[in-house]
Design goal:
This protein is an alpha/beta fold. Among the domains are: 46-96 and 105-139 and 672-690, no CATH class; 150-232, Alpha-Beta Plaits, CATH 3.30.70.2600; 411-649, no CATH class. Helices cover 46% and strands 16% of the residues. It has a five-stranded mixed sheet, with no helix packed on it. The chain has a five-stranded mixed sheet with strand order 9-10-11-13-12. A hairpin with a 2-residue loop joins strand 5 (184-191) and strand 6 (194-202). Helix 2 (20-34) runs antiparallel to helix 10, helix 6 (77-93) packs across helix 27 and helix 18 packs across helix 22. It starts with a strand and ends with a helix. It is found in: Cytoplasm. It is an enzyme of class 3 (hydrolase). This is Dipeptidyl peptidase 3.
Amino acid sequence: MASQVVFQLCVALAFDGLTKNERLYAHWMAKAAWRGTRIILRQVSPEANGIFDLIISLYRSCQGDWEHLATNADVGPEELQKFLDYAALFLSNIGNYFGSGDQKIVPEIPKKALIRLASSNSQTKELLNHVLKDMYQQPPTSLGPPGPFTQTAYYLGNNCLESPEDISSISKLMEDLSIHPENTRLQRYKEPGIDCYDILQASVDESTEILNSITYLSLKNKQVRLVRGDHREELEQICRCLRRASKYTSNPAQQQILDQTMDSFLLGDLELYKEAQRAWITDKAPSVETVLGFVEPYRDPLGVRAEFEGIVGIPEPSETELLNKLASVADVLVSKLPWVNEGIGSSRKGPFEKGIFYPPDFSSVQSLAYCSSNIFPGINLPNYNDIRQDIGYKNIIFSNRMLAERIRARGLQLVAENEQETYQNNRFHSYYIWVVLHEILGHGTGRFLAEVSKDNYNFDPTNPPLNPLTGLSVDSWYRVGQTWTGVFGDLATTVDECRAELVGAYLIDEPDILAVFGYTGDSVVKPDDLVYNMYLQLGVDGLRGLANYDSSTKKWGQAHSRAHYAIFRHLLRDSDGLYTVHCESLTHRLTVQVDRMNILRKGKPSLGRMLLMLHVYRCTADVSRCRALYEDLSQVDGEALQWRDIVLYHKDPPLAFCHANTFLSGDEVGLKEYEPTTRGLIQSWAEREV
């Protein structure tokens, strides 16, 4: 594996601009965010918490003087560096699986050298003994449904997912009892004469309740319990930090957010958390932006249970002003999407889009704390579609995370040599706008057809709208209590990301959008160059995505990667020769080229056709047709496996992120940033005192 690039998430300038109370608020919210680390580790793998303890204990045993530790243990400089590389990757991904791709991170330091390194004292020696086998063992090679090559910590016990009928019935039982799945895990076990399932719910309060499941055929003669208290210790620590932060809130909305978030963590009730999310949306342009809770379901094999996440960001006024300028004209831009009826006017956009697109709160922030297995350049929250459609949502771009994209040439080897310099010079410009459009219009658009309550529909069921794909009336919609993730399951996150990526790419040639960001005929980077780069990037990212496909399990390890590959596969089939892939297996050469003259004539209509299909399937709960299309587009055939081999041969070095820490001295808060090295990254985690 190529050595990772360690990137420093600088935040000092933004932090210095905060008032004393805002710094105190940011400090305690960051503390709360980082206290979720062990929840994430527990969600990743059984051994992850033990490996974390080993790394931190080794650091403390030598106070960061790694060379002294290595010399005493008779470990050479190269072997030491391999351990430091592993430790930095582990900490940055918060676990021993990559946050992007879910492949296992295996140490390259020889076992014997690691044993010598950990033998410096009895504590580190004992910690290593507990995790040594699991650190190196393959399989499992990746996260996924429990099997010969994969594992998951969301479904515990032998054969937890063995019975689809049981899992479906438990999901229906939870839905009927209003038990949201996001903050749960599922455990299966045997007791004398009975098969048992425990729904483990994250909460401070501990209790056990036997659920009445006899009305579900597959659950007869089986026991299903709701067991509260999962992640109890960490949630209690988080609540203590939130209580400290509540002394420094800036407005009543922030106080309400914290109160309801604490109540939800105490009781495990996600209806309380949803109330907190509703209040969060009303907290417009806060001086300190925060996200805390069980948020993203990317890693759940069934696509419904969510990983914990904690984020604290400090807005950048100038960048935020630019993003809100785009948000202010978003309603006009929505009318350019392929499912919106033409000529109807801004107050009515057809059955598959909201009549008026109200501008969301859109901010650019510098990340102070981003406690997650995957640090995204931008987010769009909350993930509850009833809140998004009825109340709204927020978009956040992480500017200091975005800067990392400037320093690395991801996929450059997939571009023809005579185009590489231009591609590298223009890549960040198109990528930034792509991410912005992905968040504000990709995740923000659409209207679900639904039976909101019994016999109460948000459309006329006696005269259903026409399906633009068939010309016939729609024949499916969301029933009472159904959600997007519940209906689409394992497809939900990747299809949602794919649709959002398509929206961004589809709209990137719009002059009004480009002008907002200063790209005109007079700019250094010309609009035509930026658009060409976007379509070339679709090809590059489609090929790069294959690195996150596991050929042994035939499963995708990352929602965005699968989406990029599906988009490129569609373009190869549907854009009339717009793309050409050159593959030379013997020389490990793989390049993609685009016919520049025909991008808008062939490429944009092709993107629009795929986008329309996914959008209509999503809005009408048509999971069967969506699955048929998407699984076909994301199937990896023999030719693509050849491409994958070359992509892996030239795989880009992983990126590790080094965050700052805040420290309290009396009633003053200080900030400490760390050098962007493996040593600096490890030190930052040790001083975080998780």
